[in-house]
Amino acid sequence: MSFPLLTATAVLPAAGAILTAAVPAARRTAAKWLALLFSLGTLVLAAVVLVRFEPNGDRYQLTESHTWIKDFGVHYELGVDGIGVALIALTALLIPFVIVAGWKDADPLETKDNKRWRPTQGFFALILMVEAMVIISFEATDVFLFYIFFEAMLIPMYFLIGGFGDRAHSGTDEAAATQRSYAAVKFLLYNLVGGLIMLAAVIGLYTVTGTFSLSEIAELRANGGLEMSTNVERLLFLGFFFAFAVKAPLWPLHTWLPNAMGEATAPVAVLITAVVDKVGTFAMLRFCLQLFPEASKWATPAILVLALISIVYGALLAVGQRDIKRLVAYASISHFGFIILGIFAMTSQGQSGATLYMVNHGISTAALMLVAGFLISRRGSRLIADYGGVQKVAPVLAGTFLIGGLATLSLPGLAPFVSEFLVLVGVFAAYPVVGIIATSGIVLAALYVLVLYQRTMTGPVKAEVSGMKDLKARELTVVVPLIVLLIGLGVFPKPLTDIVNPAVTHTMHDVNKQDPKPEVEAAK
Amino acid sequence: MENLIALLVAAPLLGAAVLLCGGRRLDRIGHWLGTVLAAGSFLIGAVLFVDMIGKGADDRALHQKLFSWVPVESFQADIAFQLDQLSMTFVLLITGVGTLIHVYSIGYMEHDERRRRFFGYLNLFLAAMLLLVLADNYLLLYFGWEGVGLASYLLIGFWQHKPSAATAAKKAFLVNRVGDIGLSIAIMLMFTTFGTFAFGPVLEATGDTGEGKLTAIGLMLLLAACGKSAQVPLQSWLGDAMEGPTPVSALIHAATMVTAGVYLIVRSGAIFDAAPTAQLVVTVVGAVTLLFGAIVGCAKDDIKKALAGSTMSQIGYMILAAGLGPIGYAFAIMHLVTHGFFKAGLFLGAGSVMHGMNDEVDMRKYGGLRKYMPVTFITFGLGYLALIGFPGLSGFFSKDKIIEAAFAAGGTQGWILGAATLLGAGLTAFYMTRVMLMTFFGEKRWQPDADGNEPHPHESPSSMTIPMIVLAFGSVFAGGFFGIGDRFVNWLEPVTKFEHPHPPISIPVITGATIAVLLLGVAAAYLQYGRKPIPVVAPRGSLLTRAARRDLLQDDFNHVVLVRGGEHLTRSLVYLDHKGVDGVVNGTAAAVGGLSGRLRKLQNGYARSYAVSMFGGTAILIAATLLMRAV
């Protein structure tokens, strides 16, 4: 038996989480370094996965398969396709930045008794735990295995949101604690409801197919041994899709995200939107399309409309926000609309674009949100109106913030442009009107980003801002690599498309769809 | 030879990277580095040009493919360059004028502590603009297109501490983004129609599809051009863009970037040739804008805004010519190049005046400056004569050709377009004479400012005057050099095609009429601004004047409809999101099974209990299912 590389990629951060949590209270710094070390180790393993993966080889590679609960047909089955590899790489890449950016977010307050303060260890342990669960979700090729970790990651996320709020808030500490626990409970309840509905569908799937294994179901389908009536397929699809749409999140199930991202610390907000939410859109591609191809096509019109609403609605709401972090949250809702649009356009460009979008959105939101976090920690306020003229006193901070913003508005030359344009083209080829309406996102994104930049960074220097320090070395080590990645993947995304394209070809095959031919060729 | 093309872009790109990331230690040499790299790009362009003219007219185009950019199945975009006569014309204009403006900025920005960054942005602009004109496909052109938009945003807002500059920068970017929708949709339409969006294959395949598709593509390209080239209805940003430092206005908002729309239409000529409806709309947009800009230019007291109105108007001429098809393409580009010389020169002159006048821009506070700054006066004066089309100077050759071609459009359309271009020529003469008289003639009208500082007008340093002199040479001689013997037309003919225009009235009559309206315009301006003293405070003016001062009320319209309307929309959505969507979902959750009361007891705030109940629930469900199977 070969080395279980995929298992190791998930187990390593989990082990790191346990060890980090066990570090004695007084050795906070050691705990941080330990967590960082484990996240970097995971990054190395993810890199090995990336290298070992052959884009044009089998659909699922590096597979591992063990029977787990025999009586129940549950297997411990792992395997990755190009889409999974890309998202594992994104996760493993972002976590070290999240850890370094959050280096001081869980330090004890000066007024507290420092010696017995343990939450610092917990903060970093929880981040690693989330990483482990997210990675295994991207690897699971058994529906039940996926479900367990899809749900289980709610627990560490709940504690990260509810236990470690943003210290910049208006109002009393008590009011802030109330808001924080409201956000955490809302996050939990929304996702639990989604998860419970999915659980019903998972069980339903089992009663129909007698197995949870993707490969076995695919085999059944190929042999014609799968008897699933149209109505059952549709119901099961809806059960899965609902859970993923909560997680993604899709309008109108989005309202937990602004609360969660607003109240959490900036690195945790990045963890939510850049990493955890991606499991939702990933699962749409992997499970909805693959298990329920006909139902997916049946639901496409409605989903496209909801995705369009998400794009426009999220962007308009972002324009109207007064809180920097909530603005980024609504921008993310708009971007998730694009991702879902690309997935359900059911064209190669749409789906490759959507996958690239997941990766690029992760990097660009991390860049924007983490710099926003650095800004907020300096001034102690999340309100846009409390800033002004920052570029004069902290030009590097302002410059990196602008680059993060430009990535968010998909400026050509930066990575998100490639994915957004691919999604637009992919949608336009199949549904021209939908594609045209979606282009309104191009203008609205520019509006919320540039208004945010103008109000915070330009104009006369506000008195409270005048003493603000520019980015420090630790902060630069977070921001600079992200910017380099944004430029690199914007100019040369080919390594990524080479991995993703073959996987998308499989997905297109699952739903039995072909790209529309260009008019000139079709006429011939 | 083709391997040099990438270097054209790489040189200024390197400059931008080094200057923007280099930090303060480069402050002392940054401006020299930027200038040398701009000049280096010009030299590479010159080498390529010499090589090009050594070859036969039909095999001058060069290609260079660097690598595959975005490959997804049939969607294939490359980072690849195409250098033909049209691109070459732009390369020389961009790097030539660009280098001169770098030199000028050394002096102009001498006292600005962020001069290094300014040169970094200028280099970034050059790289993006060269990418725009060298791209061999529409998606890469889009890359350059947005790149120049970014550079323009950064440079308009260069003095970000001024709220007006920050607002103007944002406005320019946003209005351009509306145009970008056009470019995006055009590319998507090309992809679904032709399966490609590279220039060569698309422009050769226009015969394979219907007129409807081509009209749609043409109109979308026009929308993009309207944004970038400040044409009606997307013109409102250009006047505000004058908030940027004056060298920026000269390079980006007069000579090069704003003409990108003309490039786009001429480059896509084959599409427009096969879509007469789109062409008609192009000419109408051009005609409306040339009059719109001229009227605004007549009313502005701010010297840069008067020149901005003029730029808008002159680009209107170019767009109109580009809409005329093969009789107009070459003339559009020829006017673009001569305009590049004299308008850049005029802006640099305006900058020189402001430099000597404590950055005052109100022409009502100038007067009689010819005595204090003779070099500025003479170079500005030559630019002025070139712009109004004084016989023998550059503008005369290039504008006259557009007026002839407009008449030659045929039928009623030809008469209307011809009349518009003639009227525009008269207005041009009027507003430019007004600028000339208010600035350089009459009595001095400046006064000490609030702090008691009185301006001491003086000539600018030679780093500023030399570029002005070079551009003045271009303003005087370029038109004649290009026009006589159809040199310029023959040069572009392999790319843009050419048909001789045949206007319904003889060419000498048109030339005579042009000169007549020119003299009328000059005379009218002289009567109003030369004979009478100019009030320091602007008189109330007629209704039209007042409207023109406010850019013919477009901003007011935008404010009421877009800004206010948008604010109301977002505000009500924010309210609804909180009360409505959230409320409904929460409410439903609470109502389900009437559990809310009992649930409240369970909501004891301890996350532990949530986790336990969650696991408990899951465990029960699994157990239940297992039991079912066992039975």
Automatic annotation (TrEMBL), chain A:
Residues in the signal sequence: none
Keyword field: Membrane, Transmembrane, Transmembrane helix
Domain NADH:quinone oxidoreductase/Mrp antiporter transmembrane: 140-442
Gene Ontology MF annotations: NADH dehydrogenase (ubiquinone) activity; NADH dehydrogenase activity; ubiquinone binding
GO BP field: ATP synthesis coupled electron transport; electron transport coupled proton transport
TM stretches of this protein: 6-26, 33-53, 82-101, 122-138, 144-166, 187-206, 235-256, 268-292, 298-320, 327-346, 358-376, 396-415, 421-453, 473-492
Domain of life: Bacteria
Subcellular location(s) per record: Endomembrane system; Membrane
Keyword rRNA processing in annotation: no
Listed InterPro entries: NADH_Q_OxRdtase_chainM/4, NADH_UbQ_OxRdtase, ND/Mrp_TM
GO CC terms: endomembrane system; membrane
Keyword set includes Transmembrane: yes
Record's bilayer topology term: Multi-pass membrane protein
Protein family: Belongs to the complex I subunit 4 family.
Protein name from the UniProt record: NADH-quinone oxidoreductase subunit M
Species of the source: Streptomyces finlayi
TrEMBL record, chain B:
Any one GO BP annotation for this protein: ATP synthesis coupled electron transport
Positions of transmembrane segments: 31-54, 89-106, 118-135, 181-202, 214-234, 246-266, 278-299, 372-394, 414-437, 466-485, 505-527, 610-628
Domain (NADH:quinone oxidoreductase/Mrp antiporter transmembrane): residue spans on this chain: 135-421
Positions of the NADH-Ubiquinone oxidoreductase (complex I) chain 5 N-terminal domain: 69-119
GO MF term (any one): NADH dehydrogenase (ubiquinone) activity
Pfam family of the protein (one): Proton_antipo_N
Listed name of the protein: NADH-quinone oxidoreductase subunit L
Species of origin: Streptomyces finlayi
